[in-house]
Write a structure and sequence with these properties.
The protein has 2 helices and 9 strands. It is mainly beta and about 150 residues long.
């Protein structure tokens, strides 16, 4: 069972603003990217189109607290931790650390909550239980995990 996932990536020039700092909106893209990679690592996806009915995992909460700036060509680690798992939702903490140039330092902490949904016959999305195979592959990170 998995409770964490890490990726590293380098800041691209197009992700920075006029001051040469990563634009705040890109942190939300980074969070989505690590979340998708986490699901792929456990054999899943945020879109379960082949299920009957199809299921999805839209965000119902997203936030990010910024500590330090990231700049063009900085290398960062994005660390996803599962902080809460309920029958129909999962909440992640996502830690951002600059690893190059050193020293290693925390630059931001994000939070995402996703809810499993299905579409009713009238097209409305309604919360649904997370599939058992997904529930069996995800666990909550121990409190000491960082």
């Amino acid at each position: 069972m998995a409770y964490e996932f890490r990726i590293t990536r380098r800041v691209e020039f197009s992700e920075t603003d006029m001051a040469g700092i990563v634009h705040f909106t890109n942190f939300f893209r980074y969070m989505e990217s690590v979340e998708h990679a986490f699901y792929r690592s456990i054999g899943g996806s945020v879109l379960m189109a082949k299920r009957n009915p199809p299921l999805g995992l839209p965000r119902v909460h997203a936030s990010c607290d910024y500590r330090r700036p990231l700049h063009f060509e900085d290398l960062m680690e994005i660390h996803l931790l599962v902080r809460e798992k309920k029958a129909k939702s999962v909440t992640y903490e996502i830690q951002f650390r600059r690893i190059e140039p050193g020293p290693v330092e925390e630059v931001a902490i994000g939070k995402l909550t996703v809810v499993c949904v299905k579409r009713d016959d009238d097209g409305r999305m309604r919360a649904a239980p997370l599939p058992p195979e997904m529930m069996g592959r995800i666990e909550v990170a121990p409190p000491a995990a960082e």
